[in-house]
Every structure is written in C-alpha cells, then in structure tokens.
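Shapes recur. Our protein:

. . .
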Amino acid sequence: MVSQQFDTPCVEEKETDVIVSEDEIGIGIPQIPFDLFVKKTRKSIRFTDAFQNLVYQSTASQHQHHGNRRHVLHDVSGNTLLSLFRSHDGSWKGLKGDGLREELLFKVERTLNTFSKAEFNVILTGDSTFTMRGCCFWRTCTIYKEDKSLVAQTNLMYTLGFRKHFVSRSKFRVTIFPGFADYTLVAGLILVLFEGRK
C-alpha cells in the first residue's frame, strides 16, 4: 500500500502588534473583591486576611505634638502607616506615618451622629470626597465615592450549621470592592467609625 501525502497550503502567519492600555487591563487595580476580617478588643483593632494572617493593627496613645489621643495603624512589621488625630470639633485628620511631618492624607468630618446611625464626610488630598455611613453597634459601615459607587462595606459574620447564629460583634468582615486599591485608607476609616461615635 502506498501512502499518499497531501500537501497542505502554507499559510504565512503575520505578527500583529496588539496594544493594550493600562485602563483596559487595570494594572495595579484589583479586579475582585478583597476581604479584611476585623477583630476589636478593648486595646486595639486587628485586621487579618482570609487566611488569618495579620495585615494591620491599631494602637492608641497620647501624642505630645498634637496634645490629644493618637490612633495609629501599623503594618505586619510594626511600621507606622497612618496616624489619626481627633480635633475638638469632632473632625479627624489622617496623617502619613507617625504624623510628625504633617503630611495630610485625608480629613473626616462627622455630619450625623445618632444611636442608630453615624455619617462622615471624607475629604482626600486632591479634593475628592467619600461618604461613610454606618452604625457602630451593629458593625455596619458603607463607604461611597462621589459618584455613589461602593468602595467598601462591612458585614457581621455568622456560622453555618443546623442553627445559624451570628458571631460576636467583636468580629466582622470588611469587603473592599474592585476598582479601589488603597486598603490602608479603608482600615483607617474603620478606626474613625469606632472612635468617632463618641
């Protein structure tokens, strides 16, 4: 038997340059929600990831430079990322690092404070604004951009089983939505929500 060989036509492949902009692929911008799990104690607030790895931790101390209480957000290595200072009028300043250089990142003004609801206006450097609404008792908090798109939202956690029941209010989850990558800012605003209710 003689095997037949068929000549297949040779197709010349042309290389085409595909140019994709950063806007199209969203370089550096998360495309899926990111969860931080928050645990509040009497002395600090801890933020962990889904694998219970520590991401941020807060401490509070008296600060001589500003003359009032300072709330500090640290990373895993203990480096100071953010310092929060409360003014006498109830507003807050978020300063980069230890706060000594006065590098302002954002300012928070409380616009509403009742037992069931608190509302804050967040002014970032560059004049963009956020709105934060929530209830500290129920650990509810929603952060919006100017265009009303969601930045982050908290949820109480619960266990699954024969009887569903909520975990203690000292533990809850913060979901940061796609399109926003500044997790440190969100963690700082959660600190303001807890301390700003007073």
